Description:
Elements: E1 19-24, E2 30-35, E3 42-47, E4 54-55, E5 64-66, E6 72-76, E7 84-88, E8 95-98, E9 109-111, E10 115-120, E11 128-133, E12 139-144, E13 156-158, E14 165-167
Antiparallel strand pairs: 1-2, 2-3, 3-4, 5-6, 6-7, 7-8, 9-10, 10-11, 11-12, 13-14
Amino acid sequence: xxxxxGGPPRRITSDxxxxxxxxxxxxxRWIYFASDKTGIWQVWKIPAxxxxxxxxxxxxxxxxxxSADGKLFYYAKGLTAPGIWKIPxxxxxxxxxxDYPSAGYWGYWGILDKGIYFVNTDAKPHPTIEFFSFATGSxxxxxxxxxxxxxxxxxxxxxxxGRRILYQQTDQEYSNIMLVENFR
Length: 184
């Protein structure tokens, strides 16, 4: 972590596990992150000033965000499980909220106070951006990708006022085959 005013970075976690995809609690007192320190990816939180981390998810978790009121934590489970899940910030049972995004598209959703924007990768002929309303429980199509989104990355961002959406798509993808001779 680094202070907005500048200064040297300060390490927040101290164990040897992988810690990725951080996000802030709404009150700025906690930092959520995914870690594989238990052998599988789970969501944890740690005080922003440092200290002991607390496990949030129990059945797998990866990238997520607190609700606007700070009472719930919404998260995706990562590369292997589809859906968006929620759990009370103070602990409790997890509940599936949506079947989308598909497995591997853990970063293609964003939460606002009224609902969740997400990418439906099963839509044809191209994936669509959709909105799930907390009030009605219904889903509305907002737009469509021109090409396939990139798997395994955080690729969707929603402005705080809900009026703009940023997304990442793969425009070109290629690779080369190389030959190494006299290899020993």
